Amino acid sequence: MASKWFVVKRLLLLVPVLLGVATLVFAVLHISPGDPARVMAGQRATQEQVEMIRQETGLNDPIWVQYGRFLVETAQLKLGESYVLKPNQSVMSILKNSIPTTIELAVYGQLLGILLGLPLGVLSAIKQDSITDHITRIGALTGISVPIFWSGPIVIILFSVTLGIFPTNGRISQEFFLSDTWLFFGHELPRTGLITIDTLLLARYDAFMSAVKHLVLPASVIGFYSMALISRMMRSSMLEIIRQDYIRTARAKGQGERITILKHGLKNAFIPVITVIGIQFGTLLGGAVLTETVFGIEGIGMVLVDAIDVGDYPVVQGTVLVFALLFTLVNLGVDITYSYLDPRIQQ
Amino acid sequence: MGRIPWLRANQMLWPWIRARVRLIGSAALGGGVLAVLGVIGLLLATPYDLAFVSTQAFSLGALCFGFGLLGWSGSVLAGSSVENAQRYLDTGMNWSEADSRRAMARIGGFGFGGMVGVIVVSSLWA
């Protein structure tokens, strides 16, 4: 079990991570061209109106005063209000609606990657240099090399446009919406925000199937990328393990190959793979920016792209901070799991 | 003297602190000097006003500081995992968590020094 001190140390590391991200975002937004006061006031506003907004929002203050204020407000989770994207709506409420979408996409993608990657990696290792191994390795190399902005449109053309099996974009068919708001069968979404869970909770299996159909392509694209790295890592790790003395001893004692691999090899080979899965999950959350844009899914990634597009600074800052928080929390979970499986890491 | 535990701990603690202060302090000093010279140089050589120059210079310093801090904490959080992953993937790179941590501490210190330098020179100039 992970010691309390180990967990506390990891939690304390969240502070510099978030401070670093907040500082980076603040700096980038101030260096990049564009005047937030002008964005807020609108292009037709007079110079006096722009100046008034600048005065009211503190944009006239010296930059270090703005930086200090930004850090204090961020620490209090006051992320401000959207200027342009959804005017006068708090950034927190925008994020609250979009985070579950991204998490759902990343979780299904990662699950797919794990379910395919682990067995393929093990198979590739125990059948080293066979045709199966070569095919798996080529598949893994392809998966790592092909970017999502290329594979996404390809699967859309193939499975949506040509074969017509899956829908091209969105989270669920429009027929399941009562209006273009978040009203869904008279219930306000998100309940959990995870559309597959919500539809099941409401016992609307037709809507559930629609949500699943909408998820298949984006989750597969993400999953393929994830599967590639996991299978590659699993293969290398498994190869190292099956050359160990204790595996040789198990074989020498006459234990069956399957039991030797599954009982003695798998758990130990899995340890380094866990860290990769964790890092990979964080990357998937980041990769959601591309996937959501390609598949038209309104998650946090798409919110970020839209906010950058219109120069909505508070939304950009809030979104990036949430990305960082999710990434580090996932890493924390991975570290705790890792330390449970291999207590030496705590020292 | 060496038998007293807290003194023995201190004997180990001071060199540890000194090495880190030297690492970050020298970088911060460099950043601070560069920021002061940069702000003064830009004010004298360009038509931009103090507000614009200090905003740009402070943002650049903050960029370095943020990058360094994020890189440092990222190295501590996930460095060993990345090191492990590289070993298993046979990337042949000599990247290590400790080197990355030191480099990032320097970049962060440089940026922090730059931010402080901009504040000092801008306050004095105004």
Automatic annotation (TrEMBL), chain A:
**Main location class:** membrane
Write down the membrane topology: Multi-pass membrane protein
Gene Ontology BP annotations? transmembrane transport
The family database entries (Gene3D superfamilies) matched by this protein are listed as: MetI-like
The UniProt entry's GO CC annotations, sorted and at most eight, read:
plasma membrane
Does the keyword section mention Ribosomal protein?
no
Q: Which domain of life is it from?
A: Archaea
Could you tell me which CDD domains the record lists for this protein? TM_PBP2
Its annotated compartments are: Cell membrane
- Which PANTHER family does the annotation name? DIPEPTIDE TRANSPORT SYSTEM PERMEASE PROTEIN DPPB-RELATED (PTHR43163:SF6)
By sequence similarity, the record places it as follows:
Belongs to the binding-protein-dependent transport system permease family.
What name does this protein carry?
ABC transporter permease
Organism of origin is Halocatena salina
TrEMBL record, chain B:
Q: Which keywords fit this entry according to its UniProt record? A: Membrane, Transmembrane, Transmembrane helix
Q: Which domain of life is it from?
A: Archaea
Which ranges does the record mark as transmembrane? 21-45, 57-82, 103-125
- Report the Pfam families cross-referenced here: DUF7268
Protein name per its UniProtKB record: Uncharacterized protein
Species of the source = Halocatena salina
